[in-house]
Each structure stands twice: as C-alpha cells, then as structure tokens.
Write a structure and sequence with these properties.
The chain is mainly α. It has one domain. Helices cover 42% and strands 0% of the residues. The protein has two helices and no strands. The longest helix is centred in the middle third of the chain and has 33 residues. It binds zinc ion. The site of zinc ion (ZN) has 8 residues, from loops.
C-alpha cells in the first residue's frame, strides 16, 4: 500500500454502491469520488445507499418473520391461517 503525499491525485474505485469502475481523475473543478458515468454522483449514490439500506432492512425483517413462523409452526400453531381453520 502506497500513500501519495501530493494529494492531487485521487484514485480508487467509484464510490457509487456496486460500481467498481475507476474514479475520474482530479479535474480543475476538484476531485470526484465517482467514475465517469453521469448517473454516478453524490446525490444518486446517497439515494442508492438509502435504497440498499431499506432493502437490507426489509430482508432482515423477512428473515425474522420466517424465524418466528418456524417457532410458531414448531409449537403446532399457525400465524397465517384464519382462526376458523384452527378449530378442530
Ligand atoms: Zn461509478
């Protein structure tokens, strides 16, 4: 790992979630943390990260719901069936 002291060249992958393209080189307007795709910028990356976080949270909730369903099922009960079906 080498660190450059100049601070003028910012290299590395694009910071857009899931993008592994190279960052654009530093321009006169300043450095960028994103690649040359116009849709990869601070705003879209922020939205993509929020969306990914919301999706991950939903998947976590679904896993938790599945886990609870297994527990309920193992107890011989059901949380999905209407009450009328549980009457023997
Ligand atoms: Zn990118």
């Amino acid at each position: 790992m080498t660190k450059r002291r100049s601070g003028t060249t910012v290299t590395g992958p694009c910071r857009f979630p899931g993008c592994d393209r190279r960052r654009q080189p530093t321009t006169a307007h300043g450095h960028t943390a994103y690649c040359d795709l116009p849709e990869h910028n601070h705003d879209t990356a922020y939205r993509a990260r929020k969306k990914a976080a919301a999706l991950a949270e939903r998947q976590e909730l679904q896993r938790e719901l599945q886990r609870l369903r297994e527990i309920v099922k193992s107890a011989g009960l059901s949380i999905d069936a209407p009450r009328s079906q549980q009457v023997a």
